[in-house]
Design a protein that fits this description.
about 450 residues, Aminopeptidase, single chain, five-stranded mixed β-sheet, alpha/beta, Aminopeptidase i, Domain 2
Length: about 450
C-alpha cells in the first residue's frame, strides 16, 4: 500500500474543503444548500418532486425534500438490471440545541433564549463557548410564505458556567445542566419598553430585512462560531462541530462528483433526523429514497420484476462516523477492536443489527478498499455498553438491499467540538469513489 501523509497537498486540501463545508453549514438546511450549490456548479440539475421528470441519458440530478434532506444521482451508461444502484447514505443533522417557537423571555434584566435538546449532545461542551444561531425562518410575503436561511456570524448567545465556588463538586461529579431550568442561553440585556420576544425577533428581522410582523415561525439551532481547524504536532488532526455526520456527507458528495458518466447509476442520500430516530418525511424511515428510486426505475421502463432484480444487484454504503480509541478511557472500548485515528476507514458491526454490516457486505467493502488502496479497520462496541445505530438498518430493511455500515474514526462524538484524522477523510473519499466507479 502506497504511503501518504497528512501533509500531502491533495489530502490537506480535502480536509480543508471539509472544514469549509462544515463552517458554511451550521444547520441541516444550510448543509443542503451548500451541497446544492456544489452540485449546481458541477452541472447537476435540480428536480422538483411535484413536476414530471424528463431524464436524459447519463444525466446528473438532485432533489431536495423539506429543505434539510437531499438526494443526488448520476445515471449510468449500463442498464440498471445489469448493474443495480450504487448508493451512499449519510445524515445532515447533528445533536445540539434547538430554539423553542417562542424563544425569548426576560429575567432580572436579561433576555434569555429557551431551547430544547435535539438528539444526544454532550451538553457540557456548550458552556462558555461563543455561540450563535442559524436555521430557517418562515416569512409571510403577501399571500405567500417564503423560507429564508439565516445565520448570525457574530457570537450572539452564551451559556455561562456556574462558578466553582457555588458548584464545588463539579470536578468530581461532572458538569451537568438541568435541561429545563439551566440551559436557557443569555442573549442580552432587556430594553425599556420592548418585550423580550420582540427584541429577539427584531434581530432576525434586521438580518432578513423584513418586518417582525411578517415573521411566522422558525426552526433554529445553536452553533459554535469557532471555525474548523487543524491541530497536532504535524497538523494531522482536524477539529470542528458536526463532523458527525457532515464529514460523511462531504465525502459522499466529493466521491459522486468525481464519478460522472460512470457505468453504474450512483446515488447519494443525505437525510435529516437521523439523530432523533429518522421517523419523518425527510428521514431515512420516510419514503424519500424509495420514491427517487421508483422514479428512476420508471424512467428506465423497469417492470416490477426488473425493479426487484435491480435492487438485488444494488449495494448501499451507510456512512456515519465511528468511535476512535481514546487511551485516556481505555476501559470504554472492546479490547480487541481498537480503531485508530488516521489508520483507515472503519467497518462497523453489531450482531443485534444496530449496524447493517454482515460478513458478506463487510467483505465486499474490504474488497473495495483493497482496490482503492485504502486501509480499513473493524469495530464492535463493548458487549456491556449499549450500541448506537445508523440509517443502515433502516434503508436495508426498506429496500432489501445489501448494506454495510462504515465511517471515519473520531473522538468526542456529539461534542460541540469533535476531532478526527486528516488522512481518514481522504481514505473515505477514495473508498467511496471506488465504490461508485466499479462493479465490485
Amino acid at each position: 500500500m502506497m504511503t501518504i501523509t497528512a501533509s500531502d497537498p491533495i489530502v490537506k486540501n480535502q480536509a480543508q474543503a471539509l472544514l469549509n463545508f462544515i463552517d458554511a453549514s451550521p444547520s441541516p438546511w444550510h448543509a443542503v444548500e451548500t451541497v446544492s450549490q456544489q452540485l449546481l456548479a458541477q452541472g447537476y440539475q435540480q428536480l422538483l418532486e411535484t413536476n414530471v421528470w424528463q431524464l436524459a441519458p447519463l444525466g446528473n440530478y438532485f432533489v431536495v425534500r423539506g429543505g434539510a434532506s437531499i438526494i443526488a444521482f448520476s445515471l449510468g451508461s449500463k442498464p440498471l438490471v445489469e448493474t443495480g444502484f450504487r448508493l451512499v447514505g449519510a445524515h445532515t443533522d447533528s445533536p445540539g440545541l434547538r430554539l423553542k417557537p417562542i424563544s425569548a423571555f426576560s429575567s432580572k434584566g436579561l433576555v434569555r433564549i429557551g431551547v430544547e435538546v435535539y438528539g444526544g449532545p454532550i451538553l457540557a461542551t456548550f458552556a462558555d463557548r461563543d455561540l450563535s444561531i442559524a436555521g430557517r425562518v418562515m416569512v409571510k410575503n403577501g399571500a405567500d410564505i417564503n423560507t429564508h436561511l439565516i445565520k448570525f456570524d457574530q457570537a450572539l448567545i452564551r451559556l455561562p458556567n456556574l462558578a466553582i465556588h457555588m458548584n464545588r463538586e463539579v470536578n468530581d461529579k461532572g458538569l451537568k445542566f438541568h435541561k429545563q431550568d439551566e440551559l436557557p442561553l443569555i442573549f442580552g440585556e432587556t430594553e425599556a419598553g420592548i418585550e423580550a420576544d420582540q427584541q429577539f425577533m427584531q434581530q432576525i428581522a434586521n438580518l432578513l430585512k423584513v418586518n417582525t410582523a411578517d415573521i411566522l415561525t422558525w426552526e433554529l439551532n445553536v452553533f459554535d462560531t469557532q471555525k474548523g481547524s487543524f491541530w497536532g504536532a504535524n497538523q494531522e488532526f482536524i477539529a470542528n462541530s458536526q463532523l458527525d455526520n457532515l464529514a460523511s456527507c462531504h465525502a459522499a458528495l466529493t466521491a459522486l462528483l468525481a464519478n460522472k458518466n460512470s457505468a453504474t447509476t450512483n446515488i447519494i442520500a443525505l437525510f435529516d433526523h437521523e439523530e432523533v430516530g429518522s421517523e419523518s418525511a425527510t428521514g431515512a424511515s420516510g419514503s424519500f429514497l424509495c420514491d427517487i428510486i421508483n422514479r428512476i426505475a420508471t424512467h428506465e421502463n423497469l417492470n416490477a420484476a426488473n425493479r426487484i432484480r435491480t435492487l438485488a444487484l444494488s449495494f448501499f454504503i451507510s456512512a456515519d462516523m465511528a468511535h476512535a480509541y481514546h487511551p485516556n478511557f481505555a476501559s470504554s472500548y472492546e479490547p480487541h477492536h481498537h480503531v485508530l485515528v488516521n489508520k483507515g476507514v472503519v467497518i462497523k458491526s453489531n450482531c443485534n443489527h444496530r449496524y447493517a454490516s454482515n460478513a458478506d457486505t463487510a467483505a465486499r467493502f474490504m474488497n473495495i478498499c483493497q482496490h482503492a488502496n485504502v486501509p480499513y479497520q473493524q469495530y464492535v462496541h463493548r458487549t456491556d455498553l449499549g450500541c448506537g445505530s445508523t440509517i443502515g438498518p433502516i434503508v436495508a430493511a426498506q429496500l432489501g438491499v445489501a448494506t454495510v455500515d462504515v465511517g471515519c474514526p473520531m473522538w468526542a462524538m456529539h461534542s460541540l467540538r469533535e476531532s478526527a484524522g486528516v488522512l481518514d477523510h481522504h481514505y473515505m473519499i477514495r473508498a467511496l469513489s471506488q465504490a461508485f466507479s466499479s462493479s465490485i
